[in-house]
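wait is this the right file?? whatever heres the structure
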């Protein structure tokens, strides 16, 4: 007899440090300074303020020439993809599109996903650690609403925000952000990474 635990979902988490951290923080700081005088939007589920463009442009990273952010993030995307053997026998280019999001007091996001095929992620630029967690739900909705055989903690995973933390996950993985009940404004950069297949290696 055996009991197999199936269907685990790989989520990648790393804390960016050193020169990479400094370079990313400087790039985002420039955009934050510029965006303070510009009108942002509220198109996402919940009530956050964001540069997200629901028309699909999401050129935040390009508009602010965030080359360090893209280079460092994509190096971790490459590590993540290879560590879980995701299309490792293909030569792939990445198309990364991102947006900045401000979580003021009482801001939150409902359950949502980012699509089907690529990798999604979030980088925490500013947080006090208590201003809203990201929660990942088990991908099977029928399992989430069942009591057998697990406890609620087996149905979700909670990640607390930390300045410099980068989290990568499959775009289809449902997640939400809990309400910011503090006076601190949490600022994060979310993004999607789609694959461009060049040729089989």
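ok assuming it is, sequence goes like this
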């Amino acid at each position: 007899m055996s009991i197999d635990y199936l269907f685990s979902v790989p989520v990648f988490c790393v804390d960016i440090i050193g020169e990479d951290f400094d370079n990313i923080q400087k790039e985002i700081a420039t955009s934050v300074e510029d965006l303070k005088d510009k009108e942002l939007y509220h198109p996402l589920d919940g009530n956050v303020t964001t540069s997200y463009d629901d028309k699909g442009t999401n050129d935040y990273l390009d508009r602010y020439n965030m080359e360090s952010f893209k280079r460092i993030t994509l190096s971790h995307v490459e590590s993540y993809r290879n560590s879980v053997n995701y299309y490792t026998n293909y030569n792939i280019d990445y198309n990364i599109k991102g947006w900045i999001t401000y979580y003021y007091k009482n801001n939150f996001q409902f359950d949502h996903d980012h699509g089907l095929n690529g990798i999604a992620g979030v980088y925490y630029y500013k947080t006090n650690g208590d201003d809203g967690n990201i929660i990942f739900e088990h991908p099977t909705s029928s399992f989430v609403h069942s009591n057998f055989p697990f406890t609620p903690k087996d149905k979700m995973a909670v990640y607390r925000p930390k300045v410099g933390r980068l989290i990568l996950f499959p775009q289809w993985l449902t997640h939400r952000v809990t309400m910011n009940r503090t006076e601190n404004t949490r600022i994060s950069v979310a993004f999607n990474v789609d694959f461009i297949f060049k040729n089989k290696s």
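The beta strands are 12-15, 49-50, 90-103, 109-112, 119-126, 134-137, 156-159, 165-170, 175-177, 186-200. so i think its the right one actually
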